[in-house]
Design a protein that fits this description.
By secondary structure, the chain is mainly alpha-helical. The protein contains 11 helices and no strands. The longest helix has 14 residues. It starts with a helix and ends in a 5-residue tail after the last helix. 38% of the residues are buried. The mean pLDDT is 93.
C-alpha cells in the first residue's frame, strides 16, 4: 500500500490513475484509502477525480464516512462529474441518488444519457430500485434503438432475466 499511495499522489495523471485504481480494486484499509479518494473530490485532474469516485463505490459501505463530503460535491460538480459523485454515493449505500442517474437517462436534452446508463450498469444490484423506471424507459417508443438496447443491457446486468421477461432484447 505505501508504494501505491505514492503513485496515487503523483502529479503524473497516468501514475495517479493507476495507483488509485489499484487501491480501489484491492479494497483494504479504508481508513487510508477513503481520505485519499476524498482528497480528489475537488481535483481538476479528471482521471484522479473519476477513479476516486470509482474507488469509493468499490469500497461500498465501509466508505460511508465519505457521504457528507460527497453530498457537498454534488452541489459543486456539474455534468458527468456530478453523475460520478451520485454513482459513488449509491455504491456506498445512499440509494436516493439513483434518482439523479435516472433523471439524466430520461432527460432528452442531456449529452450524458448513455454515461448515466453505463454507471447504473456498473452498479449492478445496487441499482435494483432503478429497474422499474428503466423498464418503462426502455419500452418508450420515443427512444431510438441504440438507447433502448443499452437500457435493456443495463437492466439485464442489474437484474438478470428481467429485460428478457419484459420482452426487451438486450
Amino acid at each position: 500500500i505505501p508504494e501505491l499511495l505514492i503513485r496515487a499522489q503523483s502529479t503524473n495523471h497516468v501514475d495517479c490513475y493507476r495507483g488509485l485504481s489499484l487501491i480501489g480494486h484491492i479494497g483494504t484499509r479504508p481508513e487510508v484509502a477513503v481520505p485519499l479518494f476524498l482528497s480528489n473530490v475537488t481535483s481538476t485532474n479528471p482521471m484522479a477525480f473519476g477513479q476516486s469516485m470509482a474507488g469509493l463505490e468499490q469500497y461500498g459501505p465501509p466508505a460511508s464516512n465519505a457521504l457528507p463530503a460527497l453530498e457537498q460535491a454534488l452541489t459543486l460538480r456539474t455534468g458527468h462529474d456530478r453523475l460520478l459523485v451520485a454513482y459513488a454515493m449509491v455504491g456506498i449505500g445512499d440509494r436516493s441518488k439513483l434518482t439523479l442517474l435516472l433523471a439524466e437517462v430520461q432527460n432528452t436534452n442531456s449529452p450524458y444519457r448513455t454515461n448515466a446508463l453505463s454507471l447504473l450498469l456498473r452498479l449492478k444490484t445496487d441499482a435494483l430500485d432503478a429497474v422499474p423506471a428503466l423498464l418503462a424507459f426502455a419500452k418508450s417508443s420515443t427512444n431510438d434503438y441504440d438507447l433502448q438496447t443499452h437500457t435493456a443491457r443495463t437492466i439485464e446486468q442489474i437484474s438478470p432475466g428481467t429485460a428478457k421477461a419484459a420482452g426487451l432484447r438486450p
